[in-house]
Amino acid sequence: MRPRIAVIVPICDGAVPTDLMLANIAEQVYPGEVEVIVADSASSDCTAEGAER
Q1: What does the alpha-carbon distance between residue 32 and residue 9 come to, in Å, rounded to a whole number?
Q2: Residues in a beta bridge with 6
Q3: CA angle at residue 47 from 8 to 27, to 5 degrees?
Q4: Domain ranges in the chain?
Q5: By its UniProt entry, which InterPro entries does this protein fall under (predicted)?
Q6: Fewest Cβ atoms closer than 10 Å to its Cβ: which of 1, 5, 8, 48?
Q7: Are 6 and 32 in contact (CB under 8 A)?
Q8: φ and ψ at residue 15, rounded to 5 degrees
Q9: What is the pLDDT of residue 53?
Q10: d(CA 53, CA 43)
């Protein structure tokens, strides 16, 4: 059994790069459980909405 991993993404006002990065993370192949945590620091753009998708 593979260890569970967490990817922590700190971001502020980075909606476009965040969308691309999260898509790339989702495409990775890992045989264990993966948790992605996006820590949004009060962005004034649509970073939080994009991360929720």
Answers
A1: 19
A2: 35
A3: 55
A4: 5-52
A5: Nucleotide-diphossugar_trans
A6: 1
A7: no
A8: -60, -50
A9: 66
A10: 16
Looking up tokens 């980075």 gives: 14
Q: Which two tokens stand for residue 51?
A: 């991360």
pLDDT at 24: 92
**φ and ψ at residue 32, rounded to 5 degrees:** -110, -175
Of 52, 51, 47, the C-alpha closest to 14 is 47
Mean pLDDT, range 3-23, rounded to an integer: 84
Residue 25 token pair: 């993370």
Residue 39 neighbours by CB under 8 Å, 6+ apart? 8, 9, 10, 11
Per-residue pLDDT tens digits for 27-48: 999 999 999 998 877 777 777 7
